[in-house]
Each structure stands twice: as C-alpha cells, then as structure tokens.
Amino acid sequence: MPLPKAELHLHIEGTLEPELAFELAARNGVPLPYADTGELREAYRFEDLQSFLNLYYELMAVLRTERDFEELADAYLARAAAQGVRHAEIFFDPQAHLSRGVAMGTVVEGLWRALGRSEERHGVSTRLIMCFLRDESAESALETLEAAKPYLDRITGVGLDSAEVGHPPVKFREVYETAAALGLRRVAHAGEEGPPEYITEALDVLGIERVDHGLRCMEDPALVERLVRDRVPLTLCPLSNVRLRTVDTLADHPLPAMLDAGLLCTVNSDDPAYFGGYAGDNFDALRETLFLDEKRLRELARNSFLASFLEDDEELRARYLAEVEAYEFGA
Ligand code: ES4
Ligand code: ZN
C-alpha cells in the first residue's frame, strides 16, 4: 500500500498521456505533427520551461469537448489513486482553451464530471484551482476571472503559471485582489526559473497562501526565515525540476536542505505525463536518490495535508492525517 498523500501541484493538461492524445486527436479530427506515440515521446526532451510549454500548449489542441476533459481528469484520478493520492488540488489553464474557442463551461463542466464522482469512484477528494497565464496580459486574466463567475462554486482558488521570467507577480495585483474579494484562495508559481524576489512579491502583493515551486528561495536566507516563520507551504516538483533543468540531477535537488531549514515542503508531480512520473513516482525517486528515510517521507505526506485547502472540511483533513500517522512502511 502506498503512503497516503495529497497532490497540490498538478496541471490537469499536463496529465495528457501520448496514448490519450492520439485517441482524442483521432476522435476530434485534430491533426498532430507526430507519426505515433513513440515519435511524440521523442519530443519530451526539454531544454527549459519554455521548450516544455511549447509542446504542452501544442498538444492541448486535442482537448475539445466536455467528454475529453472528463476522460482526461478521470484517467489522472485513477493513476493518482493507485499511487496513494487521497486528495488532489488540480490546476487548469482556461486561457489556453478559451483562445482555441473552447468555452469555460466546456472545461469546467467536463472536469467536474470526473471530479464530482472521484471520491466514490477513486477514493480521492478534489479541489479545482484556476490558473492565469502570466505571459498573457493582466486584462486577459481579469476577463478570465469574469468568465469563471458562473462556476465559482466549483473553483476553490486561483494560481499563476506559464513562462515566469519577465512576468513578475505585480502584473496581476488587481486580478488577485478581485479573486480574494470573491472568496478564492490564492497560490502562484514563483521561484521556479524566476528569482527569489518574485516569491517575496507574490507573498506581499498577491497575498498568496502557498508558493508553487519556490525552489529559488534558498538563494535568500531572509526569505527562507520568513517562509519558515510564517509556515508558508511550498509545492515542490522534483522530477519536473530535473526535466526542465532547474536542477542538474535529482541528487542535486535542494529538498533535503529545504526540510533541514524547517520549510514546509510538499512533493508533487506538476505535469506527470511529460516529466516521467506521478506523485508516488516522485516520492520513490526521492527515497532512492536522496535517501530520504521514513521519518522524512512521513513528514512530506503530513505536510501535504497540512498545506491543502481543506479548511472547509477539517474532519476529512484529520482523517487523512491519521492515515499518515498510522501508515506502516513496507507493509
Ligand atoms: C508548468 Cl512546470 C510549469 N511551470 C509553469 N507553468 C506551467 N504550466 C504547466 N506546467
Ligand atoms: Zn506547475
């Protein structure tokens, strides 16, 4: 039985496996510039974040109908459940679909068909987090939030993703203020490729409650001290960092140093179809390569539930935390 955990950094579009991409391409009559899944997989050699994003946005063309989004999410939830994920807070990128003529309702209703049945079917509770693309304008983000208004009962929070460098958090001050006024939780990618100053700015200007990645906080001791003091969770994605060359190898990953510094770290999969593994695979890689012991692994699992947006169901959080404490490794 795998260690129970929450997944807090997962782009649903990044769970599109090559097999499903080809199936949806055929069903929707969308041409793909790859002969087969093997050739597509060959394209999964990334230089940096942008080279990955180019393929990520290209492949989304196959997602067109509610049923497509439902199948995408259901396939992810099945895989996540098999790797011990008990709770998933799932990002989606509405602008990447709206710009292709796919309506907000198609995306949200489609995802909801899978999420609404997930507890019963997969034993995984879920939340949805809508991300703004930071390489698009602030006006576009505001329009996206406006388009989401009919669906806010299904959306727990907002996030910020896509190309980071050159797109500082301050650009999105207004949309985050509006989101907060609507009662939405706030997170943002910061310090993945961008500098530690972006993390500080996202905390100060956007009022984020959790930092996605946040890896580069380690370059700023005063920031580390603040994150530790304020118990701000970081959603790390080790296999993503290796594939996007944010770290040289997994053995060089700062996660052990970050835990030693007292940071509230969690382990997540980011875009598992592209980066070589789901949540459990990330845990396994850390155990094998960084020699994390059972105490550390349990801490990471505990952190994932502590960092989750389960304030609306503390009973469920307590049950998950009890599962983590009761877990027997090797059983
Ligand atoms: C992403 Cl790894 C990563 N970073 C920033 N934005 C993203 N969107 C999907 N995956
Ligand atoms: Zn991400």
From TrEMBL:
<feature type="binding site">
    <location>
        <position position="271"/>
    </location>
    <ligand>
        <name>substrate</name>
    </ligand>
</feature>
<dbReference type="GO" id="GO:0008270">
    <property type="term" value="F:zinc ion binding"/>
</dbReference>
<dbReference type="InterPro" id="IPR032466">
    <property type="entry name" value="Metal_Hydrolase"/>
</dbReference>
<keyword id="KW-0546">Nucleotide metabolism</keyword>
<comment type="similarity">
    <text>Belongs to the metallo-dependent hydrolases superfamily. Adenosine and AMP deaminases family. Adenine deaminase type 2 subfamily.</text>
</comment>
<feature type="binding site">
    <location>
        <position position="189"/>
    </location>
    <ligand>
        <name>Zn(2+)</name>
    </ligand>
</feature>
<protein>
    <recommendedName>
        <fullName>Adenine deaminase</fullName>
        <ecNumber>3.5.4.2</ecNumber>
    </recommendedName>
</protein>
<dbReference type="Pfam" id="PF00962">
    <property type="entry name" value="A_deaminase"/>
</dbReference>
<dbReference type="InterPro" id="IPR028892">
    <property type="entry name" value="ADE"/>
</dbReference>
<dbReference type="InterPro" id="IPR001365">
    <property type="entry name" value="A_deaminase_dom"/>
</dbReference>
<feature type="active site" description="Proton donor">
    <location>
        <position position="192"/>
    </location>
</feature>
<dbReference type="GO" id="GO:0009117">
    <property type="term" value="P:nucleotide metabolic process"/>
</dbReference>
<feature type="site" description="Important for catalytic activity">
    <location>
        <position position="213"/>
    </location>
</feature>
<keyword id="KW-0479">Metal-binding</keyword>
<dbReference type="GO" id="GO:0043103">
    <property type="term" value="P:hypoxanthine salvage"/>
</dbReference>
<feature type="binding site">
    <location>
        <position position="9"/>
    </location>
    <ligand>
        <name>Zn(2+)</name>
    </ligand>
</feature>
<keyword id="KW-0862">Zinc</keyword>
<feature type="domain" description="Adenosine deaminase">
    <location>
        <begin position="4"/>
        <end position="316"/>
    </location>
</feature>
<feature type="binding site">
    <location>
        <position position="270"/>
    </location>
    <ligand>
        <name>Zn(2+)</name>
    </ligand>
</feature>
<keyword id="KW-0378">Hydrolase</keyword>
<dbReference type="GO" id="GO:0005829">
    <property type="term" value="C:cytosol"/>
</dbReference>
<feature type="binding site">
    <location>
        <position position="11"/>
    </location>
    <ligand>
        <name>Zn(2+)</name>
    </ligand>
</feature>
<comment type="function">
    <text>Catalyzes the hydrolytic deamination of adenine to hypoxanthine. Plays an important role in the purine salvage pathway and in nitrogen catabolism.</text>
</comment>
<dbReference type="GO" id="GO:0006146">
    <property type="term" value="P:adenine catabolic process"/>
</dbReference>
<dbReference type="InterPro" id="IPR006330">
    <property type="entry name" value="Ado/ade_deaminase"/>
</dbReference>
<dbReference type="GO" id="GO:0000034">
    <property type="term" value="F:adenine deaminase activity"/>
</dbReference>
